Structure formats: structure tokens, C-alpha cells
From TrEMBL:
Any GO molecular function: methyltransferase activity
Pfam families (UniProt xref): Ubie_methyltran (PF01209)
PROSITE patterns: UBIE_1 (PS01183)
Name of this chain's protein: Class I SAM-dependent methyltransferase
GO-annotated biological processes: methylation
InterPro entries: SAM-dependent_MTases_sf (IPR029063), UbiE/COQ5_MeTrFase_CS (IPR023576)
Amino acid sequence: MSISEQKSRMRTMFDSVAPRYDLLNHLLSMGIDRGWRKRAIRNLKLEAGDRLLDVCAGTGDLGFEAISQKDISVVGVDLAFNMLERGNQKRKERRFSFV
């Protein structure tokens, strides 16, 4: 299977689970995903005004956690359009943009 075929299959898979991704992530990890995000952001030692690039952002939970801890800007990038759309639905007036 070529790399472009692998990307297409991965995109399709994540696009299909996007509506229930957050619920599945929280349930299957028994909530551990929330804790590791908090720790990851604390360990980055971000300062006010910093920018964070979240690669494979999914629905944006890492970026949302970063914004909740610091006055920063976040850009999320993901292969799966539906994951980004779900993140945009969750986003209200936060400095977080998806590409």
C-alpha cells in the first residue's frame, strides 16, 4: 500500500469516528487522557503570548487545555477534516484556529 493510500485510509477512519472521538477517548483511557494533557502543557512551560502548534490536533483538546492554563494562541493541524470540524464546533471565543 502506498503512502498516499495509507493517508487516505487514516483520514477516512478518523473522519468516521470524529463525532464520538472525545467520548471514546475519555472512556477508553478511563479519563487518563485529561491528566496527561494537563501535565504535558505544564511541562512545556509556556509563557503568556507564546504560540503552540498542535500537530494531529484531532478535536483540539490539547490546545483547549493549553489555553485554559496560559494566555497563548494555538493553531491545530490535522489530517482528518471532520476532527477539525468537531474542534471548531467545540471552540467558542478562544484564540485557537484550525488548518
